[in-house]
Amino acid sequence: MQIDFSSVAQLIEAANTNNVAISRIVLQQSACDMQITEGEIFAKMASHLTIMCASVEEGLSPNTRSLSGLITNEAFLLKEYVDAGKSLSGQLLGSAVYNSLAVMATNACMGKVVAAPTAGSAGVIPGCLVALLGSLQIPEEVLINGLLNASGIGMVIARNASISGAVGGCQAECGSASAMAASALVEIKGGTPTMCGHAAALALKSLMGLVCDPVAGLVEVPCALRNAAATSVAIISADMALAGIKSVIPIDEVITAMGEVGKAIPEALRETSKGGLAVTPTAKKIEATLYS
């Protein structure tokens, strides 16, 4: 079956028809499209996972501080809190969130991150996957398949809506990342391709309408903490789908709706820093201090 990533339904149908996971369909089609071997693509994804793990480790330093000073050691503080057993959300969710914050801190400090699907939403997918690697000891090969699954969902979103905050608001960045992560988590945990679609839909519609309003034009505030929230949404959405909960609105219709909402979001709320949190009194003081 030729896959052109025009819909998630197409991915699910191909996976179900061939009795394989979505990641397998994505791997096969990507090798064909890029005219390289499946092994080369898998190795590239393995490299991405290695970079994600390194980004988490770098961002967890207690001495982290971005040039602007807007991001410091938040990831480290949350890790200390979660690892002390104080977290209301538990170890897995807590670690996923501090991993997500760590990646965004690495990004803000000009470190290396994997755009997943963008640098502004780079914390969500590694936040989830590195947590599984640590807390549940999920094998790396399984996590790499999760990345392949996520990439398939991301390609459909990019084709039918947007993954750019400047085009569709933060729903297009953190929302897309959350949907991609939710689908990946379901496959990693042994869920069906159909469950992957429901998880992606549950996550994306939960973040629909999220605006992009970076303070002082920097992808730091509120971007990092939104990554943390989107990470939580991804995990909860995956759990709901694995439990048998279905999205009433199919994922492809959710993607289309997200694209339409993005077009309707005012220009002031699409990464221009002309609205939302970016024009609050505190934000304007920060901007004046940074650019004085």
Name the poorly predicted regions. none
> How many runs of DSSP E, i.e. beta strands?
0
* Total of helices: 13
Range of helix content: 55-70%
The assigned structural class equals: mainly alpha
Provide the β-strand percentage band.
Answer: under 5%
Overall 3D form = globular
Distance linking N and C termini: 58 Å
Helix and strand element order: HHHHHHHHHHHHH
Largest sheet: none
Rounded to the nearest angstrom, the radius of gyration is 18 Å
Average pLDDT value?
A: 97
Descriptive notes:
By secondary structure, the chain is mostly helical. It is built from 13 helices and no strands. Helix content is 64%, strand content 0%. Helix 5 packs across helix 6, helix 7 packs antiparallel against helix 9 and helix 9 runs antiparallel to helix 10. The longest helix is centred in the N-terminal third of the chain and has 22 residues.
Show the helix and strand layout.
Elements: H1 8-18, H2 22-34, H3 38-59, H4 74-83, H5 91-108, H6 124-135, H7 140-160, H8 165-168, H9 170-188, H10 193-206, H11 223-242, H12 251-264, H13 281-290
Helix pairs in contact: 1-2, 1-10, 2-3, 2-7, 3-5, 3-7, 4-5, 5-6, 5-11, 6-7, 6-9, 6-11, 7-9, 9-10, 9-11, 10-11, 10-12
Descriptive keywords:
mainly alpha; 292 residues; single chain; 13 helices; globular
Would you summarize the structure shown here?
The protein is mainly α.
